[in-house]
Amino acid sequence: MDQESLPPQKKELLRQMSSPHKPNDARGSLNRKMSVQEYELIKEDMQDEQCLKRYRKSCMQEMHERLSFGPRFEGVHDLADGEAFLEVIEKEHRNTVVVVHIYKVEVKGCAALNDCLDCLAGEYPTAKFCRISVEASGAGERFSDDVLPALLVYKAGELLGNFLAITQSFNEEFFATDVEAFLNEYGLLPEKDVAMGDDADVE
């Protein structure tokens, strides 16, 4: 390291650390208290390391979004009306798979499918899982009770899958793994998320 380019405090600290001590001085030097100046320098270095970790995490997240899978989501998003439904299809990131469940509380299988999507949203944070009641969608005449629950899958504004009365494809009792296998059969789910490095260390 070029010592000339170091700040004066660090130069002085290096000089003290590299000065030879006589044997009878050694114990005294080990027992001496750390100066405020030394403490500040060490604290500064530790803060720098934390900043570096946070910066690295932020860069990895940004790279993840920009280069590969698009943004990340948490949980299932409730859509308030038909306008919100159109917006999520048209304006979402081009790499994001959008799965929309159209349901009616009274229709058998809708509540179970909602529970399954809650599980899958945790497994696939790069896909956006949404739900909207048929009444809120404004498309009640197109989605009568006998075609519910319906599952629509979009990417880059394009409809990739349109599954009406989807629960007919399952046993009477079905789970998230059944819905996952069904969607994977059509190649509609992204790859499962992989934890990114040492994020757990970062406060």
TrEMBL record:
Keyword Phosphoprotein: yes
Lineage top rank: taxon: Eukaryota
Gene Ontology BP terms: visual perception
Xref: InterPro entries: Phosducin (IPR001200), Phosducin-like_reg (IPR051499), Phosducin_N_dom_sf (IPR023196), Phosducin_thioredoxin-like_dom (IPR024253), Thioredoxin-like_sf (IPR036249)
Pfam family, any one: Phosducin
The entry's keywords: Phosphoprotein, Sensory transduction, Vision
Span list, region Disordered: 1-30
Domain Phosducin: 3-196
Family assignment from sequence similarity: Belongs to the phosducin family.
Protein name: Phosducin domain-containing protein
Taxonomic source organism: Coilia grayii
Organism classification: Eukaryota, Metazoa, Chordata, Craniata, Vertebrata
